[in-house]
Amino acid sequence: MTKKQKKVLVRIIISAVLVIGLQFISVDDPYIRLALFMVPYLIIGYDILKKAILGIVHGEVFDENFLMAVATVGAIALGEYLEGTAVMLFYQIGELFQSYAVGKSRKNITALMDIRPDYANVEQEGELVQVDPDEVSVGTIIIVQPGEKIPIDGIIAAGVSSLNTSALTGESLPREVAEGDEVISGCVNMSGVLRIRTTKEFGESTVSKILDLVENSSMKKSRSENFITRFARYYTPAVCIGALALALLPPIINFLIGNPANWAQWLIRALTTLVISCPCALVISIPLSFFGGIGGASAKGILVKGSNYLEALSQTAYVVCDKTGTLTKGVFEVSDLEPAEGMSREELLEIAAYAENYSNHPISKSLKEAYGKQIDSSRISDVQEIGGHGVTAMVDGRKVAAGNVKLMKQMQIAYRTPERIGTEVHVAVDGAYAGYILISDMVKPNAKEAVAGLKAAGVKQVVMLTGDAKDVAESVAHELGVDVVKSELLPADKVTEVEKLLEQKGKKEKLAFVGDGINDAPVLSRVDLGIAMGALGADAAIEAADIVLMDDNPEKIATAIGISRKTLRIVHQNIVFALAVKFVCLALGAVGTLNMWWAIFADVGVMIIAVLNATRALRYKKG
Ligand code: ADP
Ligand code: MG
Predict the structure, then answer these.
(1) Distance between alpha carbon 3 and the CA centroid of its chain, in Å?
(2) Which of 99, 346, 370, 509 could form a disulfide with 317 if both were Cys (CB 3.0 to 4.6 A apart)?
(3) Cβ–Cβ < 8 Å for 146, 189
(4) Centroid of ligand 1 to alpha carbon of 467 (angstroms)
């Protein structure tokens, strides 16, 4: 409990004791009786009264403080001191409970996201010193001991260890690392001492980016939340006008037709409806549900950048996937090398690796890996990457082109067609064909389950788009069981394909695109929901996408959909439940069946149930 909450609790106790005590003493003088009751009433209600008055001054009249102030002041004016004080008391108990629950689920989320490092160890004059991670510059060697969190992204300069990545990815399997491996902040070092050369500043490191995302995610409001805000804006004034009518009309009518007017009775009924109508259960429990859903997802390595995206996710009907790096590993192995005449196999691979040196494409990374030797970048100049085609560059003063068939056609170079299936990288030097390298990628081990999981989650169509050759694309599509496959697409063609689907889908259906962030940024920004794979690698992906899957595991898409559906179910339950109870109570209050005591119990009770229901969003079992 926070200090503020404790203060409220003390006020509740003192005021309750005083109210109970007052039941045992009988005071005849009405003014002294009023004065005595004002003590517990003001102790418990002064802040509400103050907020209500400030609200009126600022022109934001109709809020729950206003409702409570009018209802209780009215009750006291009618001589119902006990009721007036009790309503305020219960209202404060409800508010306290709610702020406690909100604080607790916030804490839950931060515990799940317990990745913020407090310090970094650096060596100064032979001794380990703890410094603020913000002060460590790029290229510094930091030392991470077993049990400590890696504070900043970097590359291991010395040491072997296994890393616990579960806080980031939700995966419990440790990851083995050794010298030369890239490591990201937020992982916990489990066994050996690691010396890490930092490659980023703390503010640019994975940890900071993720924490920013989580902290800002509640700013992007879902439609349900906006609905509630709008609803409260009309609802509260409407209720006040209704209460006013209830206080005035029946007595006036009674008076006109010659019955006793019963002013006091109708005023009490009107005040009771004011108490009942307080919309706090809805106002608090809906954002809390989304907060829980986002927190639950982040515990599974799924970062959702806002409630609106979680809401959209629950309506996903089409999932469009990129192939390379999303459904396949994006780690190609050379399966064939066919140099043209006058060129050796080694030479072909070397030229290709040099031309590809600056590209981030999985193909180029794999070629450099296959080449295996240090690349002397002074031999390379004028590099140009052509999306969906390949690269051109000057290597040792010769114009090298490396890429697919499209590139060769564009440059009007005659090429040979390999007999085996695989991704082809054709190479040309100074306009003459130099041979091809056939490489093959592997399907991710859980890609097939991922596609099946999406179907099971109710996704209508799983589509695969790729820039790769038709035969490769079709064999992968067949293996995974995707519904539709489109191949040999340029990045712009992918946008066209996605736009076709966007037109074809229903109004309430959402289209999600899953990619690795390489060559698919235009698509990511065009769709309803951009999901990026590989936050562990591609930086751009974290920024472009609405949802980031930390561990490259495509099965998490179905998990994310499951979490979003559960969250939305809770939100709808709360809306329906709270409104139903409200309307029933309002009707009963208006005809006088429900007194103010029941009114306040109904209000606080609904709120507690709604908040407890909302915290369920934090937990999701499957996946
Ligand atoms: P995908 O849809 O499979 O992710 P991309 O749009 O990234 O495909 O690339 C499409 C095709 O363009 C690749 O299959 C490859 O043939 C060619 N390509 C793209 N970039 C390169 C590169 N750097 N080197 C060689 N070929 C490339
Ligand atoms: Mg790609």
Answers:
(1) 30
(2) 509
(3) yes
(4) 6
Neighbours of 503 (CB within 10 A): 7
What CATH architecture does domain 120-151+153-199 belong to?
Answer: Distorted Sandwich (2.70)
Shortest-distance ligand to the CA of residue 366: 1
Distance 163 CA to ligand 2 centre (A): 28
Burial class (CB in 10 A: 0-12, 13-18, 19+), 18: middle
Q: Is the pLDDT of residue 433 over 90?
A: yes
Tell me the C-alpha distance between 534 and 516, whole Å. Answer: 6
Q: Which residue has the tokens 């991704």?
A: 423
Catalytic positions are 322
Give the CATH fold of the 304-328+444-561 domain: Rossmann fold (3.40.50)
- Could you tell me if the CB of 487 is within 6 A of ligand 1? no
Q: Is 143 in the pocket of ligand 1 (CB under 6 A)?
A: no
* Among the listed residues 163, 159, 148, 142, the one whose alpha carbon sits nearest the alpha carbon of residue 193: 159
Residue-wise pLDDT tens digits, 134-179 = 999 999 999 999 989 999 999 999 999 999 887 777 777 788 999 9
**Token couple for 511:** 């289209």
- Residue 79's pLDDT is 84
Size of the chain, expressed as the number of residues it contains = 623
DSSP string, 21-72: HHTT-----HHHHHHHHHHHHHHHHHHHHHHHHHHHHTT---SHHHHHHHHH
pLDDT of residue 126: 83
Superfamily of chain region 330-442:
Calcium-transporting ATPase, cytoplasmic domain N (3.40.1110.10)
Query: pLDDT digit string (tens) for 236-251?
Result: 888 889 989 999 999 9
pLDDT tens string 62-120:
777 888 888 889 888 888 888 889 888 988 888 888 788 777 766 666 665 667 788 99
pLDDT bracket for residue 61 (50, 70, 90): confident
Q: Is 364 in the pocket of ligand 1 (CB under 6 A)?
A: yes
- Domain boundaries of the chain, sorted by first residue: 1-112, 120-151+153-199, 304-328+444-561, 330-442
Backbone angles phi, psi at 517, to 5 degrees: 90, -5
* Residue 602: other Cβ atoms inside 10 A: 22
Q: Which ligand 1 atom is nearest residue 322's CA?
A: 2
Tell how far the Cα of 406 is from the centroid of ligand 2, in angstroms.
16
Asked if the domains 120-151+153-199 and 330-442 are classified in one and the same CATH topology, the answer is no
pLDDT in tens, 350-400: 999 999 999 888 899 889 989 989 999 999 999 999 988 999 999 999 999
Give the number of the ligand closest to the Cα of residue 517: 2
Indicate if ligand 1 lies below 6 Å from the C-beta of 108.
no
Q: What is the DSSP letter of 92?
A: H
Regarding the beta carbon of 423 and ligand 1, being less than 6 Å apart is answered: yes
Atom nearest to 325 CA in ligand 1:
4
- Judged by its nearest atom, the ligand closest to the C-alpha of residue 541 is 2
Model confidence pLDDT, tens digit, residues 573-614 = 998 998 898 888 888 888 888 887 788 778 788 888 888 888
